[in-house]
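README: folding subset

This subset contains proteins for which both the sequence and a predicted structure token string are available. Records are stored as plain text. Below is the entry for Alcohol dehydrogenase (352 residues), shown exactly as it appears on disk.
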Amino acid sequence: MSYRWQNTLISTNSTIKDALKIIDSEALRVALVVESDNRLVGIITDGDIRRGLLNNVTLDSLVTAVMNPSPTTASASTPRAELEEIMQEKGILSIPLLDSDQQLVELALLNAPQKPIYQNPVFIMAGGFGTRLKPLTDDCPKPMLKVGDKPILETVIRNFTKAGFVNFYISTHYMPERISAHFGDGKWLGVNITYVHEESPLGTGGALGLLPSDLPIGLPLIMINGDVLTNVDFERLLAFHNDNNADATMCVREYEYQIPYGVIEGEHCKVTSMVEKPVQRFFVNAGVYVVAPHVVQSVPKNQHIDMPTLLEQHMEEKNQVFMFPIHEYWLDIGRMDDFNRAQVDIQTIGLD
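--- output ---
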């Protein structure tokens, strides 16, 4: 992966989608917005983009809609020790360095710390019947269907391990032996795997009540459906949850629906506006959650409950539930056309 800061430069007439390509492809995790004379006008991070999405900014909008126009900068002559101190104090990974004419000349980087290991439990829902994928699931649980050369569930686990997660819990129901026979205790993947079995389907949240009492103390749990393929940054998701002191965080995905007709609004018999085939945008549940320990503990053993219902209950108790927008690749493999699409996508999304 490249560390050339010049690769992060982007112009003010570029789109947020262009900035995302830079942030996702470069190791520096930042896009620097400059004018033609290399004068810095702003910085864009992944967090800036996600906040923009929550405020109904689209990926086709210009970068100026989400950039930070007043980033922390420093003179190119600033001693390295002082730059390190500023970055540590502000919790940032880089500082643009400017010359006397305020032109960008370099990007100072925080010395990369050793990649962390996260003890947070990762709970994967893998008990579904996969009815809509019959006949493929007649003799194979859906999470064990192969996308590329690996089962879906193995791809999900490996994606978490790349981010530093090591403690996995898998909820099973349909053909559980196929799953446990493949993964065992997880040691061959360098992780720990524990299984919980649903004697009868408990919904998307009910299996939380089956988790053992010896989960890592005080750490939020990440929960994901076992048929979801995504390259969302789980480290950023966990940091977002912790930074907001959330009780629960739900990942959401933007969904667009175009009404195929002209929409007319009126007052009594008078037409007040006409919009031809308007596009409506919604956030939909992406099947990935982070929940605090007390939310896990609130689910009784063997109680059927879906995650939206569980989160609504905690919202009624004034708990803080946040949403984290996913702009990365995401696919819920629920139908045959989703499965076929995944076979094509897996070659290009960095999950194979």
